Amino acid sequence: MWSTGILYSISILPLLLGSGLAFGQVVPAPEPVVIGVLDPAGASLTAGAEAAVRDANADGGVRGHAVVLRPIAAADPWKDGAAAVARFLASEPRVLALLAPADGAASHVVVQAATRLRVPILTASPERSLTQAKDPWVFRVVPDDEAQAEALLRWVFPEPKGRSAELVVPDGREGRERLRSLREACRALGVREASSGEDADAVLLWLDPETALDWFAKKAANPPGLVLASTRLDDPAFLRRAPPAAAGAATPLLRAPRGSPAADWEEASGYDMAAAVLAAARSEGLAPAAVRRGLARGGPWEGRSGSLAFDERGNRRGTPAVGVLEPGPAAAFVRKTP
C-alpha cells in the first residue's frame, strides 16, 4: 500500500514539470517595470531619478520587480515630443509613469500625449497652466509660479497689501506664462505691479540662470534692492557666478542648501518624482491607474526636496521654505524659514 507522501509526490509531479521547478531548473526573474523620462541624459532631473531607482533596486525593487529608468528620445520635444511619447508607450508594456522636465514646453507635450493614453505624468515645471485643467493624471512636484511668488511676498511683507513689485520675465511664450502667474499672485495679495524703472518695494525676478546673470550685471552700478526670485536660480549655473549685486536675493528652497545629495532643485525633484511613483506602486499596484491612485491618495513622502504630497489638482501641497543668497566661492541659498 502506497504511503500518503508517495501519493502526494506523484500528484504534484506534473505541476513541477510544467513550472520548470523540477530537476533544478530556475524560474526566470519577473520582467522589470519602467519609468520613462523626457530629459537629456546627464541632466539634473535624470540624475536624481536614476539615484532613486538605484536606491529602490538595492532595497529589492517594487513588488518583486526590478525598476528601470528609460529615456524618451526626442531631439526637439516641442516638435516631435508627442510622437516620441506615443512610440515609447507602445514599445514599453510595463510603464508605471512618465517624468517631464522643468522646461514648460516639453512638459506640455508629455502631458498632452500621455494623458490621452492614461499614464501618470509627474512634472518639474512651475508653469501654472499644466494643472489648471485638473487633469487627474498630472502631478507637479514643485510649487507653481504663482504659489512661489505668493510665498515670497508673504515671507518678506507681513502685510503685502499696498506694496509694489516690478515683474521681470523673459521674452516669448514662457515669459507670458510667468507674467500671468506673477500678476495673479500680486492681485491675490493686493500688491501693485510697478512699472520698469520705478522704485518698487521688491523685484519679482522670474528669469532663468543665464538671463538672470545678465540682468544682475546690468544692475552692478545701481543695485536692485530687494529681489525675490523663482526657484530656477537655485542652480549651479547661477550660483557659481553669482555677482555681489545678487546678495540677499530670496528664493523658494526645494533642497537642503548645503550638504545636500542633490546638486540643485531639479535633481532633488527628479529623485522625489521617481521615489513617489515607486511608493505609489508599492501601495496600490503596478498598473498605471493604480500608480495614479497611489499618487493622489498617498504621501506625504519625505524626500530630497522636502515633504511631498499632492492636492486635488495635482499641485504640490504646502508652502515652500525660503532661502537667501550668500555669495562667495561657495555661494548658496541659506534657509531662513522652517
SSE diagram, text form:
Elements: H1 4-19, E1 33-37, H2 44-58, E2 67-71, H3 77-91, E3 95-100, H4 104-116, E4 121-123, E5 138-140, H5 145-156, E6 164-168, H6 172-189, E7 192-194, E8 202-205, H7 209-218, E9 227-229, H8 236-239, E10 250-253, H9 265-284, H10 288-297, E11 301-303, E12 306-308, E13 321-326, E14 332-335
Parallel strand pairs: 1-2, 1-3, 3-4, 4-5, 6-7, 6-8, 8-9
Antiparallel strand pairs: 10-13, 11-12, 13-14
Helix pairs in contact: 2-9, 3-4, 5-6, 9-10
3D structure, described in words:
The chain has helices at 4-19, 44-58, 77-91, 104-116, 145-156, 172-189, 209-218, 236-239, 265-284, 288-297, and strands at 33-37, 67-71, 95-100, 121-123, 138-140, 164-168, 192-194, 202-205, 227-229, 250-253, 301-303, 306-308, 321-326, 332-335. It is α/β, with parallel strands linked by helices and 338 residues long. The chain folds into two domains: 33-143 and 261-308, Response regulator (Rossmann fold); 145-255 and 320-335, Rossmann fold (3-Layer(aba) Sandwich), CATH 3.40.50. The strands form four sheets. The protein has a five-stranded parallel β-sheet with strand order 2-1-3-4-5, with helices on both faces. It has a four-stranded parallel β-sheet with strand order 7-6-8-9. Strand 11 and strand 12 form a beta hairpin. Helix 2 packs parallel to helix 9, helix 3 (77-91) runs parallel beside helix 4 and helix 5 packs across helix 6 (172-189). It is elongated. The protein starts with a helix and ends with a strand.
